[in-house]
Specification:
By secondary structure, the protein is an all-alpha fold. It contains 3 helices and no strands. Helix 1 runs antiparallel to helix 2.
């Protein structure tokens, strides 16, 4: 039981670390793209397309890491639902 909890927590920490790593990469790369765009062609802005679409991906990632886990239809919800159904079946079988 203790090993299962440890592995679950370790996996969760890895997910959070991965999100923050992606967020930092997003910020750094987009800052570089803004500089490149403004230096090479200040009259035609194109950097925001990358920022918008990659940003949408970052938002989905944040949702999956911080909101979905343990909440609506997350892993904890699945575990609770399985337990609920199994308890119901045990009551009807006896």
């Amino acid at each position: 039981m203790k090993d299962e909890n440890y592995e679950r927590v370790r996996k969760r920490v890895k997910e959070i670390k991965g999100f923050y790593s992606n967020l930092i990469t997003y910020l750094v790369v987009n800052a570089v793209l803004v500089i490149i765009n403004l230096v090479t062609s200040p009259n035609k802005l194109w950097f925001y397309w990358v920022t918008i679409f990659w940003g949408i991906g970052i938002i989905f990632s944040a949702y999956n890491v911080f909101l979905r886990k343990g909440r609506f239809l997350g892993e904890d919800w699945e575990e609770k639902k399985v337990k609920e159904i199994m308890d119901r079946q045990e009551k009807t079988d006896s």
